[in-house]
Amino acid sequence: MIRLFFVSWSGVVLAVFALAAFAWPTAELEPLEVADSYFNVKRGAYLARISGCVACHTNEDGGGQPLAGGVALETKFGTFFSPNITPDPEFGIGDWSLEKFARALRQGISPDGSHYYPAFPYPFYTSLNDRDISDLWAAIQIVPPVAVQSKPHDVGFPFNIRTGLGLWKGIYLDDKGFVADKTKSTSWNRGKFIVEGLAHCGACHTPRNFAGARIASQALTGDPAMLDGGASPAIDPDSLRRKGWTKETLRTALKTGVLPDGDIFGGSMAEVVRHGTAYLLPMHLDDLATFLLDES
Amino acid sequence: MRQKTVIFCAAAVFVFCAAAGAVLAHGNATGIVAERMHGMMLMARSIKSLSAMFDTGNFDPATVNEAAATIERHAGETMISLFPEGSTEAPSEAMPEIWKNWQEFSQLALKLRALAGDLAKSTDATDENAVRSTSQQAAPVSGVGESSDMWAALDEHVLLGLETKPRAEVVSAQTVQPTTASAGNVFVEITKTCAGCHAQFRRSK
Lengths: 296, 205
What we know:
Number of strands of chain B: 0
Helix content of chain A: 40-55%
Number of helices of chain B: 9
Oligomer: heterodimer
Structural class of chain B: mainly alpha
Distance between the termini of chain B: 51 Å
Order of helices and strands of chain A: HHHEEHHHEHHHHHHH
Order of helices and strands of chain B: HHHHHHHHH
Radius of gyration of chain A: 19 Å
Number of helices of chain A: 13
Number of strands of chain A: 3
Structural class of chain A: mainly alpha
Shape of chain B: globular
Helix content of chain B: 55-70%
Shape of chain A: globular
Largest sheet of chain A: 3 strands, antiparallel
């Protein structure tokens, strides 16, 4: 039965990719305009840290240089390797323009027009505005260039046909950008911006459908079958409150990894805290907790 | 003779109750698994008390010393001796990776004990206060109404991973410079050591 399901599922995926190869032959490459009058390196570095650029593009365990890539992300679709995003003109992104950078981050399109796999969490970065992009771009410029070739992804058929990603994006990519809820406080909305965008909490805490896309109606309700094979708990307001979480305990857990009972996060959340949320400014920890608990 | 019997019975009841409490607390764990889970629970209590202390900002030497002594007692060689190869029976969350990477596991256990020693010697909590003092200066991530110097206290080199510093110092450039062995810094190192071990060697809950 399981095998039958797998075979039919593979057939559907194959058909979708075949259709996509005809329907979406090339990615859109309309010109982009990005305001570049701000450039705040410090703010950009903060965004790079909180959004996971630094963690995912730095192979710390393998002795890699900052942002030189090479971190393996194992999923049921194959193994993806983060690319070199240092300013090296040959092996990194040194010969990109700000516009190409913006297109990569917000639309998931590479400079040659091909689609990125959503292992690169660009579906979350559609909420970044021009200023965010400009600051991130400026921060990357201060990173020493590293002449190391990016490792190709190890993805099997049919997922190695990138053209199919155009269809995937057409169906699942929500590119409306950040929409503030005016009935909520500024802090709540900043928390929403961080949780749903930069910090991409839903990448692990929202269940996914057969195509690996998040199920919007079940946002943050936990994923029993994460792409890496693990399981994540629900972090929607009701679930968090039911488990006794408060703003104070959430702030502490995200800052230090210490849970309310004195235990300390393990699993991938330990890495998330260590490389990401531990760096959140106190005000933003507060915003995040406010949004997650749906408080005012 | 009768008095001795009464004392023995009382002691037996006490031991039984203590054991029963440990069993109840650790979901029917027995033997060496129960023993080490109990040790972990006591260390967790210490972490909880330290965390609460840093949250309130009221540095309390007694809390620090008590936590340091507890962690020192249950980490290091004690912890190592409680993980004989293959002891993964339920409800243990220990993963077989412990014995595949025994040296790394042992080093983390020893590092934790050494850090507990450092904690006992530390006397202040300036870095945590420094972090907290920036909360009023912190700027919005995205939005209107912020001035350009609101991000000035951030260290872009640390944030980008170009330099490594204790993370508590990330926003301390314009505030109090922490001492190298402050309780706050040691506490951060302790939590990092625990997290590193849990991430590699403990099953996800």
